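During data preparation, we tokenized the protein backbone, and the record follows.
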Amino acid sequence: MATKKGICILCQQEKELNLEHVPPQGVGNKGGKNTLTRDLEDFLSWDFSGKSLPREIKRQPKENVYYTLCIECNSKLGGAYVKHYVDFVKENKEFLYRIKNVKNGKNSILTHSINNVNPLRVAKEIVAMFFV
């Protein structure tokens, strides 16, 4: 596992920082696609009125990863929230596929439930991703 020394954004201590995937790998952040990663301030300043993306946008053929959390904090967040978020995303992805099949006449029954997902833990993982 790749690490580097720095200040953890959660515990604010100088430690070895873990390579953090945002969003988690379990929802498809595994690389192999062109991914746009830049600062929010850069994004807000660009003019998107043209047909193509601004030239300043550089695409990278790798996953979104950052060194922001120490190993301990990353383990705490991962153990408490990531599984719930991944389950939530997978259930909703399957629901969207069922909607597509209903529209294409392949299925006439459409139900959706997130009974096996803790919504508070999903929300906490989403908030945590904003700080990474």
